């Protein structure tokens, strides 16, 4: 629904492909608009996402599947969803494609950006080790692991692979501090953060 979009009660196309290509579809009604979405992958993504939301009791979620060779989006599931023919029966938060227009934290997947930046900048090499005590003090902020318990959590030596296995926040923060803000931010921008992707949908946020 969020990818296709909808037409409102005033016959005006709103969001999605309906809005993006409204002019072309009106001028050339005989033309077809073929998406890169693979319906089989899309159905699978929606089912998995639905199950995961039920398991975690989360209020919303999205799954975006991209072809790494072409950059094409082959699936884009957004829940909660809505019926484009009865969009007016749904809350605005359900109708808008929040995964496109909102700014939200990437979470622990951002560790891939941090580690690869540290490696590429030669701040560390692949054999680098870190003694993770469960937390790290940075500018009076205590960055902790999700399972850190004061007085109980012991320090453990981690390599880069274990950083991901443990999802170590202190280790990732340590690498960012070790790089320094100028180098780290340069790499973050190279990865495309704070820039629009240029996807063929209106309302994309460029992030922060």
Describe the structure.
The chain is 36% helix and 16% strand. The strands form 4 sheets. The chain has a two-stranded antiparallel ribbon. Strands 3-4 form a two-stranded antiparallel ribbon. A two-stranded antiparallel sheet has the order 5-8. Helix 6 runs parallel beside helix 8 and helix 6 packs across helix 9. A hairpin with a 6-residue loop joins strand 3 and strand 4. The two termini are 27 Å apart. It is α+β, with helices and mostly antiparallel strands. It has helices spanning 16-20, 22-27, 39-56, 92-95, 98-101, 111-120, 160-166, 169-179, 181-190; strands spanning 6-7, 13-14, 61-66, 73-79, 129-132, 135-138, 141-144, 156-159. The chain has 9 helices and 8 strands.
Q: Mind summarizing the main beta sheet? A: 2 strands, antiparallel
Low-pLDDT runs of 5+ residues are none
Instruction: Output the helix-strand order.
Output: EEHHHEEHHHEEEEHHH
SSE class:
alpha+beta
User: Helix amount, in percent?
Assistant: 25-40%
**Number of DSSP-assigned strands:** 8
For the largest beta sheet, what order do the strands appear in spatially?
1-2
The end-to-end span amounts to 27 Å
């Amino acid at each position: 629904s969020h990818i296709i979009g909808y037409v409102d009660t005033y016959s005006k196309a709103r969001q999605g492909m309906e809005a993006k290509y409204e002019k072309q579809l009106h001028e050339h009604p005989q033309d077809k608009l073929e998406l890169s979405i693979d319906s089989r992958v899309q159905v699978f993504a929606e089912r998995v996402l639905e199950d995961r939301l039920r398991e975690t009791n989360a209020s919303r979620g999205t799954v975006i599947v991209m072809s790494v060779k072409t950059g094409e989006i082959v699936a884009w599931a957004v829940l909660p969803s809505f019926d484009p023919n009865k969009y007016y029966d749904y809350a605005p938060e359900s109708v808008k494609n929040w995964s496109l227009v909102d700014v939200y934290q990437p979470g622990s997947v951002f560790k891939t950006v941090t580690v690869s930046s540290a490696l590429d900048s030669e701040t560390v090499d692949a054999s680098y080790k870190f003694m993770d005590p469960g937390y790290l003090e940075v500018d009076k902020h205590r960055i902790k692991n999700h399972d850190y318990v004061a007085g109980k959590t012991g320090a453990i030596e981690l390599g880069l692979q274990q950083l991901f296995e443990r999802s170590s926040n202190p280790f990732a923060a340590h690498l960012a501090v070790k790089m320094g803000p100028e180098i780290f931010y340069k790499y973050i921008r190279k990865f495309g953060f704070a820039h629009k992707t240029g996807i063929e949908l209106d309302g994309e946020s460029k992030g922060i």
